[in-house]
Design brief:
- By secondary structure, this protein is an alpha/beta fold.
- The protein is built from four helices and six strands, in the order αβαββαβαββ.
- The longest helix is centred in the first third of the chain and has 10 residues.
- It is globular.
- The model has no long low-confidence stretch (mean pLDDT 93).
């Protein structure tokens, strides 16, 4: 069994100084504080145009429909992270992956966001960048 990662969360999520980051529907002041220590360009509650990273909290299947709209706010080499509760039947990894694909994105990484949430990274296909 692999040991838990010791890399800081922001490193696992690819948050870099100078990144334009949008955080939508993630009610975690600790996470927001961390992001703000790494970059000064943070939009909370709405996707800012030309975002390098978008973190989008999904709680139920219906939330997945917004992925296609959020994608329009990403820079071509940016990433959209969905953050969903672990181990709930209301929204599964397979459904999240399918929603990303339907929106024209591909999933490339899954990380433990917190003890209760998982984050899945979606990016544009190389041909679409």
């Amino acid at each position: 069994m692999d040991a838990p990662s010791t890399r800081p969360l922001l490193d696992k999520l690819g948050v870099k100084p100078g990144h334009r980051v949008s955080v939508i529907r993630i009610d975690d002041e600790g996470f927001l504080g961390l992001v703000r220590t790494r970059t000064g360009e943070v939009s909370v509650g709405r996707a800012k145009a030309k975002s390098d990273l978008i973190f989008y909290g999904v709680r139920k299947r219906a939330d997945l429909g917004r992925i296609a709209t959020l994608k329009r706010s990403l820079v071509p080499n940016g990433a959209l992270w969905t953050v969903r509760p672990k181990g709930v039947k209301e929204i599964t990894e397979a459904e999240t992956m399918a929603a990303g694909l339907d929106a024209g994105l591909v999933d490339v990484k899954v990380v433990s966001f917190s003890p209760t949430h998982t984050a899945e990274k979606f990016v544009f296909r190389i041909a679409d960048r």
